Amino acid sequence: QVQLVESGGGSVQAGGSLRLSCATSGYSYVSSCLGWFRQAPGKKREGVAIIYTGGGSTYYADSVKGRFTISQDNAENTVYLQMNSLRPEDTAMYYCAAEPDEATMKRCLSRQRRADFDYWGQGTQVTVLS
Hints:
Structural class: mainly beta
Helix content: under 10%
Mean pLDDT: 96
Largest sheet: 7 strands, mixed
Radius of gyration: 14 Å
């Protein structure tokens, strides 16, 4: 059974930093696709960052490039999202998503929509105060 457990959310002043974690279990972590999405009230869920665990290749949404970094710890089957220079518009519920058995890096990094992932965590709230 695939399980994704997010942690690390909280409240922070604008300009501050947070690191989110997504602990995964229940499937083969190697060569899978993992992503971070976020959803603000009244808005649709949007892709923030994606990583192909097979080689570490990444994708970032334009809105977070240069500020957010997705990384992984293969030994712990955990993916992180380091968020720096946070802005009030980054306030949202952040979700971890997984797609096991990803065949290629190219396919993984094209998964930028909610419908592209089958497994989701419960989310962790990030609030950036102005």
